[in-house]
Amino acid sequence: NMLAHEQVSLAEIYIHADRYPLLMAFAEALTDYDEVFQIFRSQHFKLAQRMIGPGSIGTGGTPMDLLERTLKDVFYPELWEVRNQLTKIADEQGLK
Question: What's the pTM value of the predicted model, to 2 decimals?
C-alpha cells in the first residue's frame, strides 16, 4: 500500500498537498477516473432505460433494477470518504 509505505493518511495528503504533490495528483487522478466512470454508468443506465424501458432486462441479461443499483458503486470509496473527514476537520477548526 502506497500510503503505508509513505506513512501518511489520505487526509494528511489533502491537508498538506504542498508536501505531497505527487500523491495528491495521483489521488485526484484516481478520483477523476472514478467520477468519469460514475457518469458513464449513469448515462448508460438512462440510455438503456429510455431504449428498453425501466422494468426490462438489458441486452447483456442484467435487469434494469440491478443496473440502477450499480449507480452508487465507486472504485475508490476511501477517496470519497476523505472529503467527509476534511469537512469535519474544517468544521472543528471553524474553517468552513
Answer: 0.82
